[in-house]
């Protein structure tokens, strides 16, 4: 079973809660995905002490673990403040740490990210950093105290899949004991299956489900893909070859003419 | 039949008018001191865009919304039916494709066709979607016109009267008080919206324009006389007083990106209101005790109010049942 900061997690699919057409659709999608963890953006939905209570109540009714995030934060200070707010609202030390460095690609600011991770880990947070596939950055994040890494597949919401499979394989090979969760950029279930086949531990999906024609069906499809990918990883795939390798030996086949 | 309608937002006033037109003796009671303070209708965009709404709603919204355009046109002369436009900037063109796939009843325009239809946008976008059957109106003028028409029919609209269905036991009541009805309708929630009114007499947009963007979709609605409404944010919150700098930045940037002339516009007003919504964001007519509640119009107040008002009036006066909007037993209608 996948362990995230000492918590055993049955499903390897994490679901974001933004951009659904209604909370009712979100609820059904969460059920169909069989996820055990949803991410919630504190920033946009907050505003005052009392505000947003109805939405939080809906999230709590989902009966899944909440991973609050710092989506939309552009500086270390903003991200740290949002993490503090999230801990208060949700009563969890978990925080998905996002420090955005560039608005067009929503690429993480890896310098700010490592700094914020260091501060939050020292304060007892259990940090899930949204990062690139950069190996050295990953090392710094682990040195800062992170025990989970969330490298991107592609820019947030782009639906392009795993842009740098080689980089992700390298991460996997270097940090065998660290939970790797592909965050961002997946578009279709086959992308998720590929991530799991490659040995990533889980994937986080939001836009690909929320903005699908039928989010509930798409959530179910991602659940199947993640299961297939993980099972394939455990089964062990064959190596790709340049030439055909007949499954029936040629030697010994009968001469028909 | 004597009926009391509580709430003078778009839902309450349309219900009152439907009842009065059917011969009922109606009074409207509104807690606040005037139309401007009577809930979120005052800050509405006033788009009548049932086919655009297919992008993120169910066909029910389109079906109910399609009824509203002739309803408004027959009762409010300011109803404009020149269609609506949807555009996206070059790098967000995937959004336009997705929008086209989810909606219907539109024509695809190229650069020249867009320029011919809406000269101010000529040359600014290479593709657009044109929804010719859609319309828009100025919500504030429309609300005033409804009040005037009600008074002509002998209906008194009384402001500053705090009433509730419970206080009026024994009388026929339709409660249209939005989020204030939460005690009776506990599954309601608030979705805050922020908007802007800009004055820009030199720009002559003739119809509403939606600018698609993966994170910040915004629409601009011409109100006539060089006034434009820019809206609207969607924040899961029932706190309706604060307006964030971020929201204003986003709305203004989107307007400026639609047309740079908006950089010179005068900011006439910044407004905010809280829409009432049920968990599936669909409207309801619900009977609680003796009272009928019309609520959960979400961001579709002017679009859905006429269809709901018609059904509420027929429910109350003729005992009819409209399964598509009435839920008396199940709290949450199953999704289509």
- Could you say which structural class the secondary elements and strand pairing of chain A correspond to? alpha/beta
Number of helices of chain B: 7
Give the helix level of chain A as a range of percent.
40-55%
Q: From N to C, what is the helix and strand string of chain A?
A: EEEHEHHEHEEEHEHEHEHEHH
What general form of chain B does the structure show?
Answer: globular
Rg of Cα set of chain A: 20 Å
Query: How much of the sequence of chain B is in beta strands?
Result: 25-35%
Number of H- or I-type helical stretches of chain A: 10
Unreliable stretches of chain B (pLDDT < 50, length at least 5) are: 329-336
Unreliable parts of chain A? none
In order across it, which strands form the biggest sheet of chain A?
5-4-3-12-11-10-9-6
Tell me what you see in this structure.
The complex is a heterodimer of chains A (257) and B (336). Chain A has 10 helices and 12 strands. By secondary structure, chain A is of the alpha/beta class. An 8-stranded parallel β-sheet of chain A has the order 5-4-3-12-11-10-9-6. In chain A, helix 1 (23-33) runs parallel beside helix 10. Chain A is globular, with a radius of gyration of 20 Å. Chain A starts with a strand and ends in a 22-residue tail after the last helix. Chain B has 336 residues and is α/β, with parallel strands linked by helices. Chain B folds into 2 domains: 2-46 and 138-187 and 279-335, NAD(P)-binding Rossmann-like Domain (Rossmann fold); 84-132 and 190-277, D-Amino Acid Oxidase, Chain A, domain 2 (2-Layer Sandwich). Chain B is built from 7 helices and 17 strands. In chain B, helix 1 runs parallel beside helix 5 (139-152), helix 1 (10-21) packs across helix 7 and helix 2 (59-75) crosses helix 7 (301-318). Chain B is globular.
């Amino acid at each position: 079973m996948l362990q995230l900061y000492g918590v055993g997690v049955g499903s390897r699919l994490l679901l974001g809660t933004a951009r659904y057409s209604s909370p009712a659709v979100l609820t059904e999608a969460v059920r169909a995905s069989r996820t055990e963890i949803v991410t919630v953006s504190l920033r946009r939905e907050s505003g005052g002490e009392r505000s947003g209570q109805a939405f939080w109540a809906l999230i709590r009714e989902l009966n899944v673990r909440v991973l609050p995030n710092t989506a939309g934060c552009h500086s270390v200070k903003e991200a740290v403040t949002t993490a503090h707010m999230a801990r208060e609202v949700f009563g969890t030390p978990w925080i998905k740490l996002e420090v955005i460095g560039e608005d067009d690609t929503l690429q993480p600011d890896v310098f700010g990210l490592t700094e914020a991770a260091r501060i939050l880990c020292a304060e007892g947070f259990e940090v899930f950093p949204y990062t690139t596939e950069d190996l050295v950055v990953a090392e710094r994040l682990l040195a800062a105290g992170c025990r989970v890494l969330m490298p991107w597949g592609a820019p947030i919401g782009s639906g392009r899949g795993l842009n740098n499979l080689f980089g992700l394989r390298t991460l996997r090979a270097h940090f065998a004991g660290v939970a790797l969760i592909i965050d961002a950029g997946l578009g279709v279930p086959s992308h998720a299956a590929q991530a799991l086949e490659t040995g990533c531990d889980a994937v986080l999906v939001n836009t690909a489900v929320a903005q699908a024609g039928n989010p509930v069906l798409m959530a179910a499809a991602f659940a199947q893909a993640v299961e297939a990918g993980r099972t394939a990883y455990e089964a062990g795939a064959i190596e790709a070859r340049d030439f055909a390798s007949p499954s029936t030996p040629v030697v010994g086949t009968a001469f028909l003419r | 039949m004597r009926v009391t309608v509580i709430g003078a937002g778009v839902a309450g006033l349309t219900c009152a008018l439907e009842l009065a037109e059917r011969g009922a003796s109606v009074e409207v009671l509104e807690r606040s001191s005037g139309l401007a303070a009577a809930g979120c209708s005052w800050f509405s965009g006033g788009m009548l865009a049932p086919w655009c709404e297919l992008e993120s709603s169910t066909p029910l919204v389109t079906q109910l919304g399609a009824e509203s355009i002739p309803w408004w046109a027959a009762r409010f002369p300011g109803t404009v039916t020149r269609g609506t436009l949807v555009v996206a900037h070059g790098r967000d063109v995937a959004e336009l494709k997705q929008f086209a796939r989810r909606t219907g009843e539109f024509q695809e325009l190229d650069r020249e066709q867009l320029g011919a239809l809406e000269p101010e946008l000529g040359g600014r976008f290479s593709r657009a979607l044109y929804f010719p059957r859609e319309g828009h109106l100025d919500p504030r003028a429309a609300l005033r016109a409804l009040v005037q028409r009600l008074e002509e029919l002998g209906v008194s609209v009384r402001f500053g009267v705090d009433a509730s269905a419970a206080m009026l036991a024994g009388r026929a009541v339709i409660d249209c008080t939005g989020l204030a009805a939460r005690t009776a309708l506990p599954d309601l929630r608030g979705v805050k919206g922020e908007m802007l009114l800009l004055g820009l007499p030199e720009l002559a947009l003739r119809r509403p324009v939606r600018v698609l963007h993966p994170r910040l979709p915004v629409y601009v609605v011409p109100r006539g006389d060089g006034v434009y409404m820019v809206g609207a944010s969607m924040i899961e919150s029932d706190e309706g007083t604060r307006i964030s700098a971020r929201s204003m930045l986003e709305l203004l940037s989107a307007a400026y990106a639609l047309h740079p002339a908006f950089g010179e516009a005068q900011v006439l007003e910044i407004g905010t209101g809280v829409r009432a919504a049920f968990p599936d964001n669909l409207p309801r007519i619900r009977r609680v005790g003796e009272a009928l509640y019309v609520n959960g119009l979400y961001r579709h107040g002017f679009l859905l109010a006429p269809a709901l008002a018609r059904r509420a009036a027929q429910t109350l006066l003729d005992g009819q049942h409209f399964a598509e909007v009435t839920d008396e037993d199940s709290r949450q209608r199953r999704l289509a």
